[in-house]
């Protein structure tokens, strides 16, 4: 059984496209990234999963149960951190969190205190008196206080300073180690790269690629930088698989996609002084797929 399973999930807002035929399977215990630029459809997918909005067609299941039919039951086991948090400003943080906890069939007092301590949040302050970043922390505690089996994060780190971001990621990793599955939507590719096992890339409402971070990087192009002992022979790297070639006297840099042995053969004809082979960053891979699918 998959923790999340969507089948051709589609949402139109009137005539305008939200998401189109989104199919995904998220395994138990995974940290699953969902990446795409503004307007690609990340929040629409998440809101549909949480049955905050209804799909136009297709279906979504969480823990094997239909998201619409069993929405209330599913929400007991799901923690959600929206990209923007809005609160009743006059309440104390503690009262708000106790109110949130009352929707779950368990006592969350201990966990609220633990989470507030980890996130360095003063529970006795009124929401009104909290900074934007501290309000965000209230949202984090609110999303995790019932120790959910599935944690859905929608652009979670906006407003947190780098230190708090690190604490937040450590917290999410700990929850994952304890068994929680994480669905992590973001356009900050660096954090996705550090956190996630697999990712789906969404573009204009459609998923264009689903792959493990590792194979996305391995099966992709390599970046090569070489320095020859003498000026490089003209046209040496004009073969198949080479793009973005830049040559200057005895230095060259280019991207290479293809059989690694054939480029090594070519390199062996040169007297090398230095050679650097780099994996592309997720950012570069993302751009590659975005341009290819344009
Ligand atoms: N309530 C709405 N009414 C009409 N169109 C909407 C509504 N919500 C979203 N859309 C449209 O659906 C598409 C997907 O938006 P969505 O908010 O899901 O994207 P996103 O990937 O989450 O982007 P962002 O990072 O900016 O939140 C966009 O074209 C957006 O304009």
Automatic annotation (TrEMBL):
Keywords: ATP-binding, Nucleotide-binding, Transport. GO terms for molecular function: ATP binding; ATP hydrolysis activity. Pfam families: ABC_tran. PROSITE patterns: ABC_TRANSPORTER_1 (PS00211), ABC_TRANSPORTER_2 (PS50893). InterPro entries: AAA+_ATPase, ABC_transporter-like_ATP-bd, ABC_transporter-like_CS, ABC_transporter_ATP-binding, P-loop_NTPase. SUPFAM superfamilies: P-loop containing nucleoside triphosphate hydrolases. The keyword ATP-binding applies. It comes from the Bacteria. Coiled coil: none annotated. Residues 4-229 form the ABC transporter domain. CDD domains: ABC_DR_subfamily_A. Belongs to the ABC transporter superfamily. This is ABC transporter ATP-binding protein. It comes from Vallitalea pronyensis.
């Amino acid at each position: 059984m998959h923790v999340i399973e969507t089948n051709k999930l589609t949402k139109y807002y009137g005539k305008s496209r939200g998401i189109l035929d989104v199919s995904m399977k998220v395994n138990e215990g995974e940290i699953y990234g969902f990446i795409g630029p503004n307007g690609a459809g990340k929040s629409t997918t998440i809101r549909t999963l949480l049955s905050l909005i209804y799909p136009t067609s297709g279906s979504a299941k969480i823990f094997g149960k239909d998201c619409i039919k069993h929405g209330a039951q599913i929400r007991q086991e799901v923690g959600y951190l929206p990209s923007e948090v809005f609160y009743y400003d006059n309440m104390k943080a503690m009262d708000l969190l106790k109110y949130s906890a009352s929707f779950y069939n368990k006592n969350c007092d201990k966990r609220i205190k633990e989470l507030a301590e980890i996130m360095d949040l003063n529970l006795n302050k009124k929401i009104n008196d909290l900074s934007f970043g501290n309000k965000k922390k209230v949202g984090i505690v609110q999303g995790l206080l019932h120790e959910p089996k599935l944690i859905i994060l929608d652009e979670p780190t906006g407003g947190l300073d780098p230190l708090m971001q690190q604490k937040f990621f450590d917290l999410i990793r700990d929850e994952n180690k304890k068994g929680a599955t994480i669905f992590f939507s973001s356009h900050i590719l660096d954090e996705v790269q550090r956190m996630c096992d697999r990712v789906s890339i969404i573009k204009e409402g459609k998923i264009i690629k689903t792959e493990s971070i590792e194979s996305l990087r391995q099966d992709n192009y390599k970046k090569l930088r070489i320095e020859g002992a003498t000026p490089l022979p003209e046209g040496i790297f004009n073969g198949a698989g080479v793009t973005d070639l830049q040559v200057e006297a005895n230095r060259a840099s280019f991207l290479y996609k293809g059989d690694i042995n054939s480029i090594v053969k070519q390199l062996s004809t040169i007297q090398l002084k230095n050679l650097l082979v780099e994996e592309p960053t997720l950012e570069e891979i993302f751009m590659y797929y975005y341009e290819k699918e344009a």
